[in-house]
Amino acid sequence: MLTKKRVLVGVTGGIAAYKAAELVSSLRESGATVNVVLTEAAREFVQPLTFKALSGNQVYTGLFGGLDPVPHISAAKESDLVVVYPATANFIGHAANGLAPDLLTTLVLAFKGPVVICPSMNARMFANVAVQHNLARLQDYGYVIVPPESGRLACGEVGQGRLPAPGAVLEVIRGALVPKDLKGLNFLVTAGPTREPLDPVRYISNRSSGKMGYALARAARDRGAQVVLISGPTSLAKPAGVSYSGVKTALEMREAVLENFDAADVVIMCAAVSDYRAKTPSPKKVKKEVREMVLEFVQNPDILEELGRLKRHQLLIGFAAEDDNILEHARRKLEAKNLDMVVANLIAQEGAGFEADTNIVKILFRNGRFLELPRMDKYEVAQRLMDMVLDMRRI
Ligand code: PMT
Q1: Is residue 261 left, alpha or beta, with left meaning phi > 0 and alpha meaning psi from -120 to 50?
Q2: Are strands 149-152 and 158-162 parallel, antiparallel or unpaired?
Q3: Is residue 157 packed enough to be buried (19+ CB in 10 Å), middle (13-18) or exposed (0-12)?
Q4: Ligand 1 pocket check: which of 273, 343, 376, 379 to mutate, most ligand atoms within 8 Å of Cβ?
Q5: What is the dihedral of CA 137, 139, 142, 147, to 10 degrees?
Q6: Spacing, Cα 129 to ligand 1 middle (Å)
Q7: Residue 158 and residue 122 in contact, taking contact as beta carbons nearer than 8 Å
Q8: Which domains does the chain have, with CATH numbers?
Q9: Pocket of ligand 1 (CB under 6 A)
Q10: Are 289 and 210 contacting, i.e. CB atoms less than 8 angstroms apart?
């Protein structure tokens, strides 16, 4: 996922410095080459040896005394991204004012690529006007600031100051490294299942977790697009930087989609919309005493088919969940719904479709072309689909 990317992790002297070990491990697992700079204060909390073992590389600790006479320039040239995790108020103050008293601050000054800064400190320090002013300044310079989380802090106080988990920062790093080639485009993405009520406590639904749709929303956002995500109920966190609308039923999803359709340039219907709903849901909880029950269903509107009739400038992309004759069924959907592209997943396959973290898809285009992607992480699938969207926009 981060193969061939070179990430430099700067660790400054905060109590959360130990979390940087996990970030370095995760970066390496994702395929990145990782170098680490520890400030003098960081070395009071963590040892260079830990980072040498985890990164598989020498750890930089100072401007002077090493074999390289200009380590700040070499490290800056050899990196695609710098992340400072955790970043103390001291580091933030120096960086915001162009001051360079040590290797890390010097290197950040010399670095031209994306810099991700993850502040972590006592909540009162974080709220201090000087720190906020410095962070705003760094943001103006184009640095990516990952705000600290709220919760119990090492000092025993409760407030905003906790370093976000390595997983969350890894996502920001991935986002910062992709080209912003979808800037200026508006995406409308649907995700998750719909729930069709039977009575106030029961419903019919399906196994969609929302993972594929959320990955699409994140991928489009990371490439610079404005994204509206319309989602059925899922247990996933709302992606940051995306305009989110939560719905429950197919009828609610239809309404939300139609509201946002005109403004969209690219529409991706990834949601698993229930084809049927109960004709007359019971207004009260159905009692167990009823020994046999016959439920009557009516068809829900096909949202994508409706969009296919309404479409003007939009690129319209559908998904197809199939358990046999994948290409034949997907082609029929492409034509019947007037789509530009359909992404078909064979849901019976291990590591594909519902709930899995990975997907295996075949993609069909209007001109008859089709291609197949091997099993890959859903975010990676989403990134490959973004490449195709870009190609189609260029034609
Ligand atoms: O959420 P995950 O667990 O990550 O799983 C991902 C997924 C399997 C749900 C996803 O990859 C996927 O295949 N989504 C589409 C599922 C589906 O409903 O397929 P379909 O073949 O029934 O529908 C075809 C297309 O019409 C889809 O784009 C669907 O959004 C749309 N549709 C369907 C019915 C309906 N009433 N209205 C619609 O708009």
Answers
A1: alpha
A2: antiparallel
A3: exposed
A4: 273
A5: 150
A6: 48
A7: no
A8: 6-176 (3.40.50.1950), 186-394 (3.40.50.10300)
A9: 208-213, 250, 269-273, 275, 300, 302-304, 318-321, 333, 345, 353-355
A10: no
CA–CA separation, 178 vs 384, rounded Å? 12
Closest CA to 315 of 182, 208, 193: 182
Q: Which amino acid is at 288?
A: K
pLDDT in single tens digits along all 395 residues of the chain: 798 999 999 999 999 999 999 999 999 999 999 999 999 999 999 999 999 999 999 899 887 766 566 666 777 788 999 999 999 999 999 999 999 999 999 999 999 999 999 999 999 999 999 999 999 999 999 999 999 999 888 888 889 999 999 999 999 999 999 999 999 999 999 999 999 999 999 999 999 999 999 999 999 999 999 999 999 999 999 988 899 999 999 999 999 999 999 999 999 999 999 999 999 999 999 988 878 889 999 999 999 999 999 999 999 999 999 888 888 999 999 999 999 999 999 888 999 999 999 999 999 999 889 999 999 999 999 999 999 999 998 76
Q: Give the number of the atom of ligand 1 that is nearest the alpha carbon of residue 322.
A: 21
Q: Does 86 sit behind a cis peptide bond, omega within 30 degrees of 0 on the bond before it?
A: yes
CA of 269 to the centre of ligand 1 (A): 7
With contact defined as beta carbons under 8 Å apart, do 281 and 287 qualify?
no
Q: H helices of 151-296, where? A: 166-177, 211-222, 250-261
Q: How far is the CA of 272 from the centre of ligand 1 (A)?
A: 4
Residue with tokens 């690529």: 113
* Alpha-carbon gap, residue 219 to 237, rounded angstroms: 15
Give the count of beta carbons closer than 10 Å to the beta carbon of residue 305: 14
